[in-house]
Task: structure prediction
Amino acid sequence: MVNNGISIIDFVGKFEDGIAVNLSMVYENKSYFLMYWFNKEGKRRIVAEDEFYKDFTFKSIYDMPHIKELFVHIDNNVLPKRDDIWKEFGI
Result:
């Protein structure tokens, strides 16, 4: 059985015009650290630790199958309500 999941480690805080968040992602039963950044305009960026790229043939996390679904999952199921985040960080 393959377990996959994502959880918040810590909100790094305001960065430029958005918020940066440290995430833990279990993918194919192994845990990886991710940095996720997003802003009010809907821009999003994600970066995985080097170990992720060593374990898989992806040159970029954006080459990962279902990357769009990953973004939707983080936005809708992992992060708290956006209004609460903006308020907390003064954006």
Remarks:
- The longest strand covers residues 5-15.
- The radius of gyration is 13 Å.
- The chain has a mean pLDDT of 89.
